[in-house]
């Protein structure tokens, strides 16, 4: 699978494309920052480049991977979302990251909802987990808004992460939950909508 | 279904085929990086880092347009080593590097044959002005190979990691024939 054969996903506000060389500076800015503390970081410059190169290789090895989230209008990047299963991962994961200055707009919800549907519909996934640092409250709240629940019996990566299990493929489609997520996304896309409380991913 | 080779050239020598990495090479790659033998090549690596380094080799090609080839013997597809053009950021310069996975495949001139082919590719196709090889000072076999390839020690060149001793051998770009 080459970069050009990674499918492009369109959502209401976003375009999701495979990671491209010119997006690297945006990735590096986040992964060498404190924002990356729940994602194995902050990384040094070499570690960050190797991880980005590996994000591309992940697509070729697994046939799925992380998409770069772009603004549909301006094409600037907001973060990444997709399927992730490097060495030592007990199960295939749905993962996301939003650049720190882009949170609070519902982009992670919108992108992750789209990639989950894609992985379920086109990659044969029947279940999925997200491995989340228990201190990463924003990500836990996003997992819960996506309908994932803590799975205490599932294997963790290294004992320092909580496993959130997503609703199975066959229960999500057409469910009240799926409609609720779409409604929340549409609220974020509405310029008059002001989220209550503090900013969420 | 998964095409990893579209943008990666295949280079043939008298005895070898140099091709892009394929997912099926993962096992040989990770087996090598588990061994003590890999300490001359940045190893041994944990499973996590070795998987990441393998995946990063694909991305290296995609991002930079060059990278490390999997070395195979002509007529069989078994991966015996990793030779190629390597420049993960923020390395100071473009490198020609070589690794033969198993000592049983050493001493046959495979690394030299593959490295020479990669150097020719760097000069002819990529039009590199210069190239280096970063070599662990204890790795006398690689020092000898660098010298046989015509490289000389460049004591003034920057090394990738100031904390780690490393020799920099510089390969001379051949005079362009017009």
Question: How is this fold's topology laid out?
Answer:
The complex is a heterodimer of chains A (201) and B (178).
Chain A lengths: L8 E2 L3 E4 L6 H8 L13 H18 L3 E6 L5 E8 L8 E6 L8 H16 L6 E4 L4 H9 L3 E2 L11 E4 L3 H4 L3 H14 L12
Antiparallel strand pairs in A: 1-2, 2-3, 3-4, 4-5, 6-8, 7-8
Helix pairs in contact in A: 1-2
Chain B lengths: L10 E2 L3 E4 L6 H9 L12 H18 L3 E6 L5 E8 L8 E6 L9 H15 L6 E5 L4 H9 L3 E2 L13 E5 L7
Antiparallel strand pairs in B: 1-2, 2-3, 3-4, 4-5, 6-8, 7-8
Helix pairs in contact in B: 1-2
Walk me through the structure.
The complex is a heterodimer of chains A (201) and B (178). Chain A contains six helices and eight strands, in the order E-E-H-H-E-E-E-H-E-H-E-E-H-H. Chain A has 201 residues and is of the alpha+beta class. Chain A has a five-stranded antiparallel sheet, with helices on both faces. A three-stranded antiparallel sheet of chain A has the order 6-8-7, with helices on one face. In chain A, strand 4 and strand 5 (93-98) form a beta hairpin. Chain A starts with 8 loop residues before the first strand and ends in a 12-residue tail after the last helix. Chain B is of the alpha+beta class and 178 residues long. Helices cover 29% and strands 21% of the residues of chain B. Chain B has four helices and eight strands. In chain B, strands 1-2-3-4-5 form a five-stranded antiparallel sheet. A three-stranded antiparallel sheet of chain B has the order 6-8-7, with helices on one face. Chain B starts with 10 loop residues before the first strand and ends in a 7-residue tail after the last strand. Residues 1-5 of chain B have low confidence and may be disordered. Classes of the chains: A alpha+beta (201), B alpha+beta (178). Chain A binds chain B through residues 1-3, 5, 19, 21, 24, 45-46, 49-58, 60-61, 63, 86-88, and chain B through 1-4, 6-7, 23, 26, 30, 47-48, 50-60, 62-64, 88-91.
């Amino acid at each position: 699978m080459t970069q050009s054969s990674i499918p492009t996903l369109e959502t209401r506000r976003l375009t999701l494309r495979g990671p491209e060389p010119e997006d690297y500076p945006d990735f590096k800015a986040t992964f060498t920052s404190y924002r990356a503390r729940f994602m194995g970081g902050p990384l040094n410059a070499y570690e960050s480049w190797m991880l980005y190169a590996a994000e591309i290789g992940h697509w070729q090895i697994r046939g799925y991977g992380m998409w770069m989230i772009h603004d549909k209008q301006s094409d600037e990047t907001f973060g990444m979302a997709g399927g992730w299963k490097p060495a030592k991962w007990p199960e295939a994961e749905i993962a996301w990251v939003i650049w720190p200055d882009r949170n609070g707009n519902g982009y992670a919800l919108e992108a992750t909802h789209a990639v989950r549907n894609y992985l379920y519909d086109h990659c044969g996934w029947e279940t999925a987990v997200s491995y989340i640092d228990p201190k990463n409250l924003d990500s836990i709240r996003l997992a819960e808004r996506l309908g994932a629940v803590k799975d205490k019996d599932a294997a963790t990566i290294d004992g320092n992460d909580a496993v959130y299990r997503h609703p199975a493929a066959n229960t999500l489609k057409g469910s009240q939950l799926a409609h609720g997520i779409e409604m929340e996304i549409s609220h974020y896309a509405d310029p008059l909508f002001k989220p209550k409380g503090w900013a969420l991913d | 279904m998964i095409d990893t080779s579209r943008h990666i050239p295949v280079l043939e020598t008298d005895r070898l085929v140099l091709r892009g990495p394929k997912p099926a090479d993962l096992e040989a790659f990770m087996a090598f990086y588990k061994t003590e033998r890999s300490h001359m090549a940045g190893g041994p690596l944990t499973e996590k880092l070795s998987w990441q380094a393998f995946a990063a080799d694909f991305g290296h090609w995609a991002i930079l347009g060059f990278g490390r080839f999997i070395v195979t013997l002509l007529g069989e597809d078994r991966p015996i080593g990793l030779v190629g053009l390597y420049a993960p950021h923020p390395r100071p310069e473009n490198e020609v590097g070589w690794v033969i996975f198993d000592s049983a495949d050493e001493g046959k001139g495979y690394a030299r044959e593959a490295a020479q082919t990669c150097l020719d590719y760097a000069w002819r196709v990529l039009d590199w002005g210069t190239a280096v090889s970063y070599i662990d000072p204890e790795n006398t076999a690689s020092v000898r190979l660098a010298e046989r390839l015509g490289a000389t020690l460049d004591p003034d060149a920057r090394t990738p990691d100031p904390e780690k001793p490393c020799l920099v051998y510089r390969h001379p770009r051949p005079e362009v024939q017009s």
